[in-house]
Amino acid sequence: MSPQPGRQVRVPGAAWALGAIVVLYFVLGALFEHEAQVRGLLSPTGAPNIDVVAIGGAYLLVRIAVRFGVPFVAALAGAGRLGAVLLERARARRQ
Amino acid sequence: MAPLDRAKPWGVRLVVLAVALTCVRLITPWWCGRDAARWYDGDETLGLQLADEVLAFEASDDAARAAPTSNRFAGEWALVTHQMTALGLAQLCLAHPELRERLAPEITRAALKSFRPEMRAFGTRAWGGEDAMASLGSAHGHAYAAYPALAVGMARLLDPAFPPSMAKQHDALIAAYERRLLASPTGLIETYPGEAYPTDTAAVAGAIAVHGRATGVDHSRVLAQWAGLVAKVQIDRASGLVVQRMGAFDGRAHDAPRGSGTALGAYFAGFADRHVAAQLAQGVFSSEAAFFGFGAIREYAPGHSGPGDVDSGPVLLGVSVSATGFALAVARASGRRESFERLYRTTELFGAPVVSAGRMRFLSGGPIGNALLLALLTSGPELAP
Q: Which run of H or of E encompasses B289?
């Protein structure tokens, strides 16, 4: 299934989306780590720093998406590719 | 690349989907639980990485305290932060005695900070200005002061240089608690006027027991009486959970049986009586919800419901953040390895631990989360003999 010489390989939309989420995961992670370290989720008197809490919430959502989504999409792509190859071989054998 | 290509028959598409879901079921719990076994097995490196983070916080807190500012870290959360720091460090020392020389002074420092009057100001306000240490002769319970008393007890157990003047204050508080608990027909003493929390009374029992171990004073009578009344009065028979809030004198329920109070109560009870801790642990783990290799503890017993509050933290889909975190300690101390691993995966996913410059911190928890998790993830060595 290698691409023909001179033909551009098309990267599917799902892969772009996945890549974007992974990049966002690292960016938000670094930002949250910095803000949590420098300012903290709570002020010394116990009042929450709302913006840091918001960054943390966004980071956790993306973290969950990455932890579940990346293995799912990678496995789906791998299994789909394998399924297609096996199906092709089975059809070729039948013909 | 089109994994679920329309050219594929439905059977193949379903198999591909099943394979992908199976991969997630295997990979995601593994990813989130990479350190679970090391924590369960008492890995010294991990413990020290988190200990170094809480010690760095204590040092910065000392520096802030020395500066002329009114914006100090104080109150209930600060009390728990310093208390759990002391307990976590003490548990590390008990598990790895070679750390004692280095950590014992830090345990004392954190424990004494939790014992400062400004840390318990919330309780003093609730009692109309009556401070726990200024009313030792009264019948008022002031059970919240058992949290620092437990930390101070662990410091006295491990630090031979513990200041004698503070030891005298601690002796007096423990004597007051012993007298109040012996006089209680419910095995409960008040935290606030008219209100008792079985979890806080478990901390009282833990503080009394650790005082006995540190000083050699015999507290067996009061501890045996408390242990008998926990089972008789405080545990809901249907769920095995303790009622979160009760009348101190009549033992009537003022709230539902709940997971957060039971799990923290089981941790504190472990300092005093293994049998009580085991009973409470049974209730906690009958409330465990497991999904996809992740575990969490339901906040409310079956037939009860309610919102999250300061004790439980957020309650999502019926499970609570606090109960799940506290149950880590119960799982480790009671030898429930599989439950510990499931709970740790959830903690890792939402707690977001990172290691940098040799220190570990849980990004979502802040200083109180780090201190709590140090105590909860190293629980076990503190159990009563």
A: strand B288-291
In this structure, is residue B20 part of a structural domain? no
Residue with tokens 């789909």: A80
pTM (predicted TM-score): 0.91
CB B90 within 8 A of CB B382: yes
Q: B297 pairs with which residues across the strands?
A: B288
| CATH number of the domain to which B192 belongs | 1.50.10
Exposure string over B350-363, b if 16+ CB within 10 A, otherwise e: bbbbbeeeebbbbb
Q: Which residues pair with B316 in a beta bridge?
A: B319
Query: What residue ranges do the domains of chain A occupy?
Result: 13-94
| B315 token code pair | 């309650």
The burial of A21, by beta-carbon neighbours within 10 Å (0-12 exposed, 13-18 middle, 19 or more buried), is given as middle
At A67, list the tokens: 């932890």
Distance CA B19, CA B34 (A): 22
Closest chain B residue to the Cα of A10, Cα to Cα: B1
pLDDT digits (tens, 9 = 90+) for B53-104: 999 999 988 888 766 554 545 688 889 999 999 999 999 999 999 999 999 9
Please report, rounded to a whole number, the percentage of residues in chain A having pLDDT higher than 90. 31
- Rounded to whole angstroms, the Cα distance separating B302 from B309 reads 18
Show the tokens assigned to B210.
């650790």
Range of the domain at B302: 35-377
User: Cβ A45–B12 below 8 Å, yes or no?
Assistant: no
Beta-carbon contacts of B314 under 8 Å, excluding residues fewer than 6 positions away, are B308, B320, B321
Residue A16 token pair: 């772009």
How far is CA B274 from each of CA B219, B270, B280, B333, B335, rounded to the nearest angstrom? 15, 5, 10, 10, 12
- Residue B277, chain A, CB below 8 Å: the answer is no
Is B37:B341 a contact under the CB 8 Å cutoff? yes
Rounded mean pLDDT of B143-166? 97
Cα B126 from chain centroid? Answer: 23
CB atoms within 10 A of CB B163: 13
Burial label, B224 (beta-carbon count in 10 A; 0-12, 13-18, 19+): exposed
Tally of domains in chain B:
1
Cβ contacts of B2 on chain A, cutoff 8 Å: 12, 80
Task: State the amino acid at position B116 in one-letter form.
Answer: R
Residues of B in contact with A79 (CB under 8 A): 3, 15-16, 19-20, 23
Distance between CA atoms of A79 and A57, rounded to whole angstroms? Answer: 33
Tell me whether residue B113 is in a domain: yes
Cα–Cα distance between B265 and B273 in angstroms, integer?
A: 11
Please tell me which of the candidates B1, B23, B75 has its beta carbon nearest to residue A46: B75
| Minimum-distance CB partner of B4 among A56, A59, A80 | A80
